[in-house]
Specification:
Layout (H helix, E strand, L loop, with lengths): L14 H13 L4 H10 L7 E5 L4 E4 L5 H12 L5 E6 L5 E4 L2 H18 L5 E8 H13 L1
Parallel strand pairs: 1-5
Antiparallel strand pairs: 1-2, 3-4, 3-5
Length: 145
């Protein structure tokens, strides 16, 4: 078995090693399911797909490493103002406000756990963006009519 330094590029990022890894798994049929299981459980933060909705539109975001990146890209695609909130539904069915890096990491952890249970690859985190400025405009319009 090959040993590599911690900072070395992973097999999935390197085309030659990825091909070698696939060929090894093909030649060793007994461990094929083990290898697939390892791939399911070894996600990076950026491997997750985030599906964001504002209730009208959806955006599918990838390469999200931090809460700050998520907030910026969600606002850029779905909100006209910086006055918004991001929520996700946790493993108990509760709508949870996400407003920090720690909360983002917990949401990712839960999405990964769900992906392992459902064999979803890559993990998917569904997020709702609430645009408070848009809500205020809609409320004023309803009150005026």
């Amino acid at each position: 078995r090959r040993v590599r330094a911690p900072d070395a590029q992973s097999d999935s990022d390197h085309p030659v090693r990825q091909h070698e890894s696939e060929r090894e798994s093909e030649s060793n049929k007994g461990t094929r399911h083990q290898i697939k299981a390892e791939k399911l459980t070894s996600f990076n933060m950026s491997d997750i797909v985030v599906k964001v909705t504002n209730g009208k539109e959806f955006r599918r975001l990838t390469q999200i490493d931090t809460y700050e990146v998520l907030a910026h890209r969600a606002m850029k695609g779905l909100s006209s103002s910086p006055n918004f909130a991001l929520h996700y539904t946790d493993d108990e069915g509760d709508l949870v406000l996400m407003s920090s890096e720690a909360e983002w990491q917990e949401a990712v952890r839960q999405a990964k756990a769900q992906a392992e249970t459902t064999k979803t690859n890559p993990p998917i985190l569904r997020v709702t963006l609430t645009d408070y400025a848009a809500m205020a405009v809609e409320t004023k319009a309803k009150d005026a009519s």
